[in-house]
């Protein structure tokens, strides 16, 4: 049996990843609340050249999904923003009347303050401060209205759908390149991009040890030695 959780999101989490709203909600499993003073902080950052586009994405998520997220009303008159804004956020959580609230913040001091108020807190594990829109893109889209060139989307049957230049297709097969067989679906999709003749630049990002260089070199050998579509292999290190 899955127990419903009540997450209260701090500003730094939304600036790290606007998609945290949906990830924490996990479908319809949990409730997500945005303290009123978090909105005031977002309003302060909307003209920041580094953060403005992220704030716009957060507001878009909230306005387009009014039934999925709960914005808390300020207790009395909203306080002006100051160094004590975290205290106001804690006051709003305490005054919400929600049983078993969980504050989601990457601010360690606010976590300590929440503990003193008896409010459990968690760090947001997908924290990625100051990423650009491009860096937040994982290669997957949630639906076809967000379609990007060469993106992937999960089908209802759990198979990835690929959207290359020639049209969409389901990837229900495993690539085998230069005697290399991918171990995960994501490695398989990386190979799908690398061997496509009409996709000329591929950027693959992950933590160390997930096979990025190995797959790229295997593809390079396959294209130069076996397919003969390329003449040289260049490798560079940062």
Quick tags:
238 residues; alpha/beta; Rossmann fold; 5-stranded parallel β-sheet; 3-stranded antiparallel β-sheet; 8 strands; elongated
How do you describe this structure in short?
The protein is an alpha/beta fold and 238 residues long. The protein contains 9 helices and 8 strands.
Topology of this structure?
Layout: E1 6-9, H1 11-16, H2 20-25, E2 31-34, H3 36-45, H4 52-64, E3 69-71, H5 85-94, E4 101-104, H6 108-116, E5 121-122, H7 133-136, E6 152-154, E7 160-162, E8 169-170, H8 185-194, H9 212-226
Parallel strand pairs: 1-2, 1-4, 2-3, 4-5
Antiparallel strand pairs: 6-7, 7-8
Helix pairs in contact: 8-9
Shape assignment: elongated
Structural class: alpha/beta
From the structure provided, what is the oligomeric state, counting identical versus distinct chains? Answer: single chain
Q: Please write the string of helix (H) and strand (E) elements.
A: EHHEHHEHEHEHEEEHH
Would you count the extended β strands for me? Answer: 8
CATH fold name of the largest domain, please?
Answer: Rossmann fold
Average pLDDT rating:
84
Measured distance between first and last alpha carbons: 48 Å
Question: What share of residues are in beta strands?
Answer: 5-15%
Number of helical stretches of at least 4 residues = 9
Order of the strands making up the biggest sheet: 3-2-1-4-5
Biggest pleated-sheet summary: 5 strands, parallel
CATH C-level of the largest domain: Alpha Beta
Q: Spans with pLDDT under 50 lasting ≥5 residues?
A: none
